[in-house]
């Protein structure tokens, strides 16, 4: 199996390698075609789909995966949200949503168009490259759940759906 992940972010690539253990996994720069900091479930999911399709498009037989982080409003709070998409072609796409946790008000109020959560997190945690390591989710969960763990779960949800679909097809 040949998997292409639409990113150069090592946390996302490691999340895919952890699930597709015996596959070739490579990271490729893609354009999410949504804002750098998506602000809804829909926009975050669309970013993941756009990345996955660009990866699958490259060559037939390739499985494309897109993983996208964003934030979404629920009631009067802002939550982290995460989405993934797996594309076999632009006609066969699986999607899955991941963990959500509430963002502290002091972080939420700094997020406006043009400001990325990753940058706010670096200032707050006095650390570099938070987005490539534990992520915001790692910091706010005392590192019980890292960004890689969280995206791995999404990748399992995606792969499982593909397997289910292939089994169904083989039976008919
Ligand atoms: O190179 P790419 O693949 O774009 O990697 P990225 O780290 O920018 O990842 P996203 O575009 O998917 O993330 C959107 C924003 O959310 C930030 N972010 C950081 N940690 C996050 C987390 O745990 N969950 C969701 N978003 C997070 C991230 O830094 C970006 O500002
Ligand atoms: Mg990004």
From TrEMBL:
Key words, A-Z: Hydrolase, Magnesium, Manganese, Metal-binding, Nucleotide metabolism, Nucleotide-binding
Entry keyword annotation includes rRNA processing: no
Annotated Pfam families: NTPase_I-T (PF01931)
Phylogenetic placement of the source organism: Bacteria, Bacillati, Bacillota, Bacilli, Bacillales
EC number(s) per entry: 3.6.1.73
Names of the cofactor(s): Mg(2+); Mn(2+)
Catalytic activity entry: XTP + H2O = XDP + phosphate + H(+); ITP + H2O = IDP + phosphate + H(+)
InterPro entries found in the cross-reference section: ITPase-like_fam, NTPase/PRRC1, YjjX_NTPase
NCBIfam families found in the cross-reference section: PRK03114.1
Stretches assigned to the Non-canonical purine NTP phosphatase/PRRC1 domain: 6-155
Signal sequence coordinates: none
Protein known as: inosine/xanthosine triphosphatase
């Amino acid at each position: 199996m040949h998997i292409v992940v639409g990113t150069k972010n090592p946390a996302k690539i490691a999340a895919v390698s952890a699930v597709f253990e015996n596959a070739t996994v490579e990271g490729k720069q893609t354009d999410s075609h949504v804002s750098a900091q998506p602000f809804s479930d829909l926009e975050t999911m669309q970013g993941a789909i756009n990345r996955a399709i660009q990866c699958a498009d490259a060559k037939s037989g390739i499985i494309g995966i897109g993983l996208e982080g964003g934030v979404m409003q629920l009631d009067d709070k802002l939550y982290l949200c995460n989405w993934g998409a797996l594309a076999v072609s632009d006609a066969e796409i699986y999607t899955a949503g991941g963990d959500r946790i509430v963002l502290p008000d002091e972080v939420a109020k700094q997020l406006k168009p043009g400001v990325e959560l990753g940058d706010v997190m670096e200032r707050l945690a006095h650390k570099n490259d938070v987005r490539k390591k534990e992520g915001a989710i790692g910091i706010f969960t005392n590192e019980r759940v890292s960004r890689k763990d969280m995206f791995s779960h999404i990748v399992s949800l995606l792969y499982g759906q593909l397997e289910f679909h292939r089994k169904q097809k083989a039976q008919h």
